[in-house]
UniProtKB/TrEMBL annotation:
Entry protein name: Chitinase domain-containing protein 1
GO cellular component entries: endomembrane system
Organismal lineage: Eukaryota, Sar, Alveolata, Ciliophora, Intramacronucleata
Domain (GH18) ranges: 55-347
Gene Ontology MF annotations: chitin binding; oligosaccharide binding
Superkingdom of the source species: Eukaryota
Organism listed in the record: Paramecium pentaurelia
Cleaved signal peptide residues: none
Amino acid sequence: MSVFNIALFGIIGAILLYYLYVSSQSISIPFELQQIQEKELEARQKESGNKNYQIPNFFFVTPWNKEGYRLTIKYAQKIDMVSPAWFSVRYNNVIDGKQVVNEQWMQEIVKANPSIAIIPRVQIELQESSFIQQINNPQLLETIINLVQQYQDKFHGIMIDTPYLSYIDAFDAQDIVKFLQKLKAKLNNKMLVLTLYGIYNPQQYKHSTLRKLFKIADYTLIQTYDYQIQDEDDQLLSPYQWVQDNLEHFMTYKEKLLFGIPFYGFKKTEHDKTHFIGNELLKLNASNFITEWDRSSSECRYKNELVSISYPCPDFLVYRLEIIKEFGRGYFVWEGGQGIELFYQLL
């Protein structure tokens, strides 16, 4: 055997050994729909286990999707903060939502993880024509503080949700900042969490405004889902490059920022486009669908001749968790009840 052949066999052998090593070190995650459905059945038989990603997280649950209550209790050991979407402040500064507060769930989730923080969402309904007058009305501040005081021993803070915060520079930013400063001061040691839309261009927010907002908030949620720049045929949820663009854009800010991961998707037919959640995925006849991976967005599609479904798959989830971890950030999920247990096992 010539020296060349010996060298060639040596190289081939080394490549095979390296491939076997990498394969043995990799976590096997299902991709095809049938595999996902089979692995989901296995996941449901498993205990929660500890976090696989040692980064901060924040989970929403909703009263209209009660599966979130069950899943967040079962996987409470993996969850740092949980936000029930219970409350809204109406235009007349009256709180709505107390009728759906789930006391039993709060007791059970704290029992499952005594360190978990319950930070309910308070959605403020504002009118564009009178937005500034409304936030300058002392009654709005008093209404929110009274709510927190009513549940003093159960809530660890509040999460303020209003789309106007994402358009803060189009209004009087100073008035909004002052309102949030007053709110934070009256919360004493309770946490204040804010939320902003993900960026689509670098000029979307003024640097000076972000500095002020991030200084007030204990955490700020950056909504890297509900992607808006789409053609008619697109079903994009959260394109990987867009997530990366957001992580890079906010690198200069050292405050605690969490980036969004959707647990929902879309189903598109010839006639309409509707929301789609994990329980629906598990009911599909896998033999009627092919699974596609969109390399440009790192997203999954489940398709046949009649329907196209865009819904996170395990690869979708792991890709985003890995890059968020790489940037030293945390993540939040909208919303816990729309996912499947396989997702929770990966977290």
